[in-house]
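Researcher: Next sequence.
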Amino acid sequence: MPAASRLSLYLDLIRWNRPAGWLLLLWPTLGALWFAAGGWPGWHLLAVFVLGTILMRSAGCCVNDVADRDFDRHVKRTAQRPVTSGAVSVQQALGLGAVLALVAFGLALTTNAAVIVWSFIGLGVTLLYPFAKRFVSLPQAVLGIAFSIGIPMAFCAAGGPDVPATEAFSRVPGYGWALLVGNLGWVLAYDTEYAMVDRDDDLKIGMKTSAITFGRFDVAAVMLCYAVFLVVWGVVGLRAGLGLPFFVGLAAAAAQALWHGALIRERTRDGCFKAFRLNHWLGFAVFAGIVADFALRGL
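Model: Next structure:
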């Protein structure tokens, strides 16, 4: 196979043409980094967390597609993924995932020992998530943990290069854990929307998802999870002394959440997928409010 065609398959494997996935990880991670640093965190930490987020999300796609290859062929939306279709072998996908994870680990090595501890925890949860869908009624909660590991990592990284591994948990303040819990709510909201797209197929193959578990209360559960995210992050912002710019961003996010509620109300595949796909703008609104507020405070 020509190198260009092989590269195209690998880019498809890591969803390079669908950046919404890594943006969903990026905005809350960077929001936590701004909270932890009290504003601009510096170019080094910004580069570490942006690149690390992209790399680990891409590695997660490789692991997920290998784990789900026998299920994905029965789901219309995923049947043509490279591993499922056989265009990329299991060994090739796992090899690429390992390389990406190692590069991300190299970035963690430029921070401190506490961040390295969290990088191993994050890797473990990333490997666990694809298999949680077989046994856990709310696998989206496991995904929420994986997608929130960047929050405690940000607080550890902001402490400088000398934070020891023994402070990996104690370095995270109470409001940092609150941000993590709030972000779990957001992940549950948007990934339930995602699961609603495939609910019929997942029921046939015996896959467990939050959309199936919530049943007829799925829309209400999604809106409640949005509310948890916005309220928790709003309270943290208020206690941190953030003002109007932050709450303008929060209001923009809340308006988008209401719009998503309208999109998923009829439970159509197109409506649910559109709501999921546009969620990164909701996260960006919150992050933009945080950045604007800290920037104005520094003037």
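Model: The chain has one domain: 3-297. The mean pLDDT is 93.
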